Amino acid sequence: MFERIDTICLTVSNIEEATAWYEKLGFTVSFKGEGYRVLNVGNSGVPLTIEEGVVTNKDHSIYPIFYTKDINDTYLQLEGKGVRVTGIQSDGHNQFFDFYDPDNNRLQVCFWK
Q1: What ranges in 56-105 are assigned the alpha helix state H?
Q2: Where is the VOC domain (predicted)?
């Protein structure tokens, strides 16, 4: 079902300012999307994604994203196991959906070519 952890996400209040800050620390931008950036971290195989949004301690702003080769099948498998899932969304580059563990922790699945 899952191939790997695709990325770890952090919510930031201003994507441009945050991107500049991370770049000053040596992170490099590998992808720019509307309201988010994917950053390479040294030689790590797992990038850091920063997403613009409301930053609050109550928000589950840090969450893993799992990559799948077949997002529809993965969605149906999770749904079939009684896992709470959101609808599949697309930002024009990626398809993704959230799912939640029994403690209501947010996890996400993505597919991209």
Answers
A1: 71-80
A2: 4-112
Residue burial 2-14, b: 16+ Cβ < 10 Å; e: rest = eeeebbebbbbee
Q: Name the residue among 29, 11, 10 with its Cα closest to residue 19.
A: 29
pLDDT in tens, 79-111: 999 999 999 999 999 999 999 988 788 899 999
Q: What is the CATH number of the domain that holds 104?
A: 3.10.180.10
Residue 59, pLDDT score: 55
CA distance 103 to 2: 21
Please tell me the total count of domains within the chain: 1
Domain residue limits at 17: 4-111
